[in-house]
Structures are given as C-alpha cells and as structure tokens.
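Reopening this one. Same input as before:
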Amino acid sequence: MRLWATRIGAGVPVVLCHGGPGLWDMFGDLAELLRDSAALHRWDQRGCGRSVREGPYTWERTLADLESVRRHFGLERMVLLGHSWGAQLALRYTLDHPERVSGLVYVSGTGIDPAATWREPYRRNFRARMGGRMARWSELEGRARSAAEERELCVLQWSVEFAGNGMAYARRMAKPWFGVNFACNSALNAEDRRTWGTAELGERCRACAVPALIVDGARDIRPRWAVDSLAEALPDVSRVVLADAGHLPWMEKPAEFRTAVTEFLIRVSAGQ
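Same output, byte for byte:
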C-alpha cells in the first residue's frame, strides 16, 4: 500500500490531515501561507486522491496510516493540523499518542457531541445557502452520474462552504480533480456514528494536556456551537473565530488564518 505524501517549507513540523472522508489533500493554498514558518507535511489518506485505492477503510487503519506518515518523515514530535473530518482524525491521534504531538490545530470541526445534535441545523443551512442551485444538486444526487456529473455535484455541494463567491472557490477546490471515494466515505462515516460522541471521548479530551487551537469560520453552515463541546473539554485550548469566512477559512481570510496559526506555532515551539 502506497500513500502519497510531500513536504514543503521549513520550521516547526506540521502534518496536515485533510477532510472527507474519501476526499484528498486540498491544502495547496494553506501550505503556501505557512511555508515560511513551518515544515508542512501533506498526504492523501488511504484510498484517496493520489494514494492507491485500497482498503480497509477503518479508523484503526487510518490512524495507523497517519503514524506511518510520521515515521516516514522521521518526526519525533509534530503539530497536527486537521480540517473538517480531518480535525477529528488529528484529535483522535492526539488522544492516542500525546507524547508525539506538540500541538493540535483543529479547523472547522464539529466537536465531540454526537452528530445528531447538529445535523438538522446543518441541513437547513445547506438548503438555504444552496438556494437556486438546490434543484440541480438534488437531481444529480439522486441518480447515477457520469464522471463529469460527479465533479459538477461536488462543486455545487462545496459552493455552500463559503461565506461568499462560493462557486468560484468550489471550482478551485476541484482542481486537480481525483474523484471522491464513496466507499471510504460510507465506511468511515458509519464507524463514526457508532463511536463518536461517547462519554469516554469527553473524558479523554479533559485529560489531554496537548496545547490546542480551534479555528472556525463564523459563517460555516455547520453550527459553531457544536464545537463548544470540545472547547469546553480540552484543558489547554484557545479559539479563533474568523468573521465572514465559511468552512475553509484559510481561503477566504488568509491573512487572519495565517496570523492565528503562526502565533500558535510560535507558542508551541517556545514550550518544547
């Protein structure tokens, strides 16, 4: 099994965990923002993007793959930066291996309560922001699609992830296009529903001493109060909410995002 991975920049070692599940690393803009202050390690998760499409698609395997990335690059300790579903991945690895993580940057996640607590507000916000694009999205979502239609569906869906100019940003996300691994998405989401939001997860977060930064876009369609559960549980956490930004805040508010993360990396480096 071969995983795609690359490294750019110099400074604090940071491993990036992309969202999904079933998507690929879309951190080109983010890596350019941070390359002067960090060594950015990017990778495509198992079955996704430039990595070989081969299971199993499980939490156990995905966490082991992240550990393989750390070992491949020879990192004794690292900062983990995870986005969306990748924020959950970064958090879980941190809870399992706090001695290997010097800091956690949790971007646009959904906290540690069960997904049922925020799903309905999310769906309402999705429909509202989709607006006139909803009819075409519903048509495509409800039937078999060609490869071109698959890309069109994703661009339409991703367009709601931004506070403004959504279609232009969504088209940027789709370049290059590698195709969504829906089998991976389905398997890992099903496991999430069985294992996320437990009392044990909250207890583990409260016992975690790793410094953490939570970064949100204020206009993410996932309700930001969902993240309160994590912010209240972690003992060493700061939180930055970027106005007029959605689910990918580094694309809409690059300067503010860079400042927040860079200041956290300086703090982490000073504490090592």
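So the earlier flakiness isn't reproducible anymore. For the record, The first helix runs from residue 28 to 34.
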